[in-house]
Design a protein that fits this description.
Blueprint: E1 10-16, H1 20-36, E2 41-48, H2 59-70, E3 76-81, H3 82-93, H4 100-119, H5 128-135, E4 145-149, H6 164-171, E5 188-197, H7 201-213, E6 227-232, E7 249-257, H8 261-275, H9 281-286, H10 291-311
Parallel strand pairs: 1-2, 2-3, 5-6
Antiparallel strand pairs: 4-7, 5-7
Helix pairs in contact: 1-2, 2-8, 2-10, 3-4, 6-7, 8-10
InterPro entries: Alpha_tubulin (IPR002452), Tub_FtsZ_C (IPR008280), Tubulin (IPR000217), Tubulin/FtsZ-like_C (IPR037103), Tubulin/FtsZ_2-layer-sand-dom (IPR018316), Tubulin/FtsZ_GTPase_sf (IPR036525), Tubulin_C (IPR023123), Tubulin_CS (IPR017975)
Domain Tubulin/FtsZ 2-layer sandwich: 124-269
Pfam family, one: Tubulin_C
Length: 323
Amino acid sequence: MSDQCDGLQGFLFTHSLGGGTGSGLGSLLLEQLSLDYGKKSKLEFAVYPAPQVSTSVVEPYNTVLTTHTTLEHADCTFMVDNEAIYDMCRRNLDIARPNFSSLNNLIAQVVSSVTASLRFDGSLNVDLNEFQTNLVPYPRIHFPLVSYAPVFSKSRATHEANSVSEITQSCFEPGNQMVKCDPRTGKYMATCLLYRGDVVTRDVQNAVAQVKSKKTVQLVDWCPTGFKIGICYQPPTAIKGSELASASRAVCMLSNTTAIAEAWRRIDRKFDLMYSKRAFVHWYVGEGMEEGEFTEAREDLAALERDYIEVGTDSFPEEEEEY
């Protein structure tokens, strides 16, 4: 298929980090793509293990191992977790028991927003290479947090606010994020706002100015600009049969924030609890792995945690006043 493309920009890769196939086969495929198409962009949409909702007891092992393997092969990894999306479905879409279709419909809106400017015209188009350029300050720090707004059900569509300013503000609220972490505890290194539909540049500029003026949004001091804007005039499309109401405009925010380190700390802690007892390790060793691969992967994730702490540190710490 790639040979038939006129202008191949890169690859969008969707897999889970916690399952056996998504982590193992996914890592192998990404590694092979890196060998065959080294210079092409490789963007991941990775389903990350949720804090409380688990689909497999060995999720911590699979996640640490696959992150270690793909860290040098993926250019940008957009993480989502099932629990965060379950909560969005219950709270915003009034779905008492969300199923996988409900979750996938929300994730599909994000994937659609990311690729919209490749498929439709707009005043500020963003191509695949620009995501890496604008969101990844250092090669290893490539895990942006994903937010999407507006998310409301058809029954609420008539009375929900949907101005450019309001949907922009919504993206900075934890309830609209697709990974469970608190952005107020971290600092933003770079942010990409991808607007769709009835949006004009002036409204976007005013909305971003309002966000920057708020004390709750902290930017790292070494990257004070921090915002990349994309506008696509094609309005968002609600999937047929979806509970999500159609809207005249929408925004998908991709933000590289140090708050995402909370997700890595969480999974590393679970890994340590299991590995301290060598629980379930025999299954992996029986398939040909060595225990040394576990410790190597865990050390790499510990280094990733330290990387996030380092990039969030101010370049010029304020000197203490002398009295």
